[in-house]
Amino acid sequence: MTAAESRRRRASSLTFPRTSCRRSMSLGLVLLLSLVGTTLAASSIPPLSVLNSRRVSAHGCDAAAAVGAAKKCRVSSQLSLLRSCRGGAAAAAAVAMPVETQEGVGPMEVFLHTIKEARRHLAAAAVARSVSIFGMYPVDTIKTRVQMELPNPLKLAGLYNGVAGSLVGQVPYGVLTFGSYEIYKEALLKRLPNVKPAFVYALSAILGDVTGSGWLCPSEVLKQKLQAGMYSNTGEALRGIWSKGGIGGFYEGYFGGLARDIPFRVAQLTSYEITKNCYLRMKARKMKANASSAKERNAVSANQLELSAGDAALCGAIAGSFSAAITSPLDRIKTLLMTDSAAYGGSVASCVGKIWRKEGIRGFGAGLVPRVVYIAPSVAIFFLAYEQVQQRLMLQH
Question: What is the pLDDT of residues 178-211, one digit of tens each?
């Protein structure tokens, strides 16, 4: 009996009563509502004042890395929504510490200052990310089932299994990646003064993702095992993973996750830049065509145009969907290593070899459609929720 057949039999032997699905959904809703209340309350704390500080967007810095801007991170906060495409990082804008005050300030102080000054934006991003995760979670479950070749991947039972663990993992992950991004950025700018800031921003974003992955991986392992039907509830999954592998069991497929996330980040930033430039050129041509005089036509330049909030979300959705498609094979490798690492050799290379021997090139495309379908609506949901919460918090403040 092959590993895939064994996994299918084990999954099909489990039954999921409707009450189990309802319990998972109820727990996710309770957690979501609690998070909304907590973040809204936290946002009412008066902000820390920093003399001569300037407002920047930390995730706009990532966009600036893609754009190749050598400016000091002067990017619209709407561009920060790009980082919501993968589903890990929280879009947030922060007040950066002035360069002249950085001397003698340790990494922890930078991290705490960054989080404190960005708490309103982080609160909005946390709520928005929770809403997008909860809304699109069934599609993510279907993707996992398809990648594991489970029977009847579209069945309704168990679509929300593991949603609570996903929320617990994703929201702190956003805070960690955001805060550590600022630390890496400040350190690298000091140590590499002759390197273009664009490369520093991109490298800092990747290092921030790697830092946050230490928190994210256990929740991803828990989530995917529940989605695959290997356990019927969160408590059983926690006990089962611990009894089989201890703390290491929660880090199955860790390197597979990194092998997916780093290429995704590079592809996302690059494709976003291309999409943005094409869109602005089209917008400039349309404005020139509608101009009433030669003076107005000559005044229009794609380099001077900016993306609106909706435009940024659209470009982000396109870039994210493209990046999700080309990294789909890596996503399947990550899924298989997290759910059944031993059967696939415990490493990325051995997993690739086994997929190739058993399924050929087609095996690497499993789950591509649901993965791509998941991205664009997630960005739209995130964007709408983020804007609504931001407006409410600004009025409250």
Answer: 778 878 888 888 888 888 887 888 888 888 888 8
pLDDT digits (tens, 9 = 90+) for 136-158: 999 999 999 999 989 889 999 88
57: three-class secondary structure by DSSP: strand
Q: Tell me which DSSP letter residue 228 carries.
A: T
CB-CB contact of 170 with 216 (8 Å): yes
Q: How many CB atoms lie within 10 A of CB 94?
A: 28
Using alpha carbons, select from 384, 317, 378, 316 the residue that is nearest to residue 63: 316
**CA distances from residue 48 to 55, 230, 397 in whole angstroms, order as listed:** 13, 47, 13
Nearby residues of 108 by Cβ (< 8 Å), 6 or more positions away: none
- The model's pTM is 0.68
Which residues face 93 on adjacent strands?
Answer: 57
Q: Residues near 350 by Cβ (< 8 Å), separated by ≥ 6?
A: 344
Contact 132, 388 (CB under 8 A): no
Selection from 71, 69, 89, 70 nearest residue 80 by Cα:
89
Q: The tokens 């209340």 sit on which residue?
A: 37
Of the candidates 248, 32, 275, 16, which has an alpha carbon nearest to the alpha carbon of residue 137? 32
Residue owning tokens 């495309």: 365
Max CA distance (Å), the chain: 75
Rounded CA-CA distance 168/50 in Å is 32
- Residue 239: CB atoms within 10 A of its CB come to 11
> How many Å apart are CA 217 and CA 353, to the nearest integer?
23
